[in-house]
Amino acid sequence: MLPVSVIIPCFNAASTLARALESCLAQPEAAEIIVVDDGSTDDSRQIAAHYASRDPRVKPLSLNQNSGAARARNWAAMHAECAVLAFLDADDEYLPDALYDATAFFASHPQNASIRLNIEFCGFPDEVSQHPALDKLGEKLVCTVPSSLVIRRSVYMALGGFPADELLRTAGGEDMPLSRALSLLYGNPRLSGRKGVRMHYHPGIHAQKFFSINMGFGTDPHPESTAQVHDLQLRLAQRAVASVEELRGLRPFSRPS
User: Are 27 and 57 within 8 A, CB to CB?
Assistant: First the structure.
C-alpha cells in the first residue's frame, strides 16, 4: 500500500468539510490529510482543528488571506510528506476504496505519473442528471477536475502544480493547464470501473457550466473572456511541459568519489 497525502483546500466550507474529512479518514491509504484554510470567515478552521485532535493524520494549515484554491493546493504540496498526492475539494467526498484503487494502479504501473478517479455526480439538476450525454461528458470532465487527481508528488512539483493566475481564479479553469501538461507528457489516464469521488452540486459549480454549455441548454455569457482563459491555459501548459523537457536534458551533478 502506497501512503497518500490528501490535500483539501478550504474556503468557507463549514457545511461540507466534515463530510469530506470523514470520507478521507475511511481511506486506509490516506497517511496524512492536509486541510488548508484559505482565509475562511466561518467555522471551517475550527472543524479542521477538531478533526486534527481526533486523528493525527489530519494536519491543518492556514493562509493569512483568501488566495485561491490553486495557491492553497500548492502550499500544502510543499508540506506533504508522502510520495503520492491526492486532491479533494472540501465540498466533495471520496467513495469507499477510492485511494486503494489509485494506489493499486501505481503498484501495477510504476512508470505512470498520475491516475484519475471516476466521479459520481450527485444532486445535479434533472436536465443534467437525466441527459443522455452525461456519461460521455462526465468522462471528459473527470480528466480535468482536481478531486479526481492522484499524482506522484515529484511530477506535480516538476510541473509547477496548479497555476495561481488571477484570471483563472476568477473565471475558472485553474486545473486545466496541469491536466493538459499531464496529457501531453504522460497521458493523464483514468481508471475504469467503480466511482471514486462523489461531486456534490451547488449553485455556480464549474461542472454545471460545463454541462450546460456542452448539453446545449446554456451559452457562454462571456465568450471573449473564455477565449482569453483558453489561450492562457494552453500557454501555461506548454510552459510546464517545456520545464520538464529542460530538466530531462540537464546533466546530473556527480559527487567526487
Answer: no
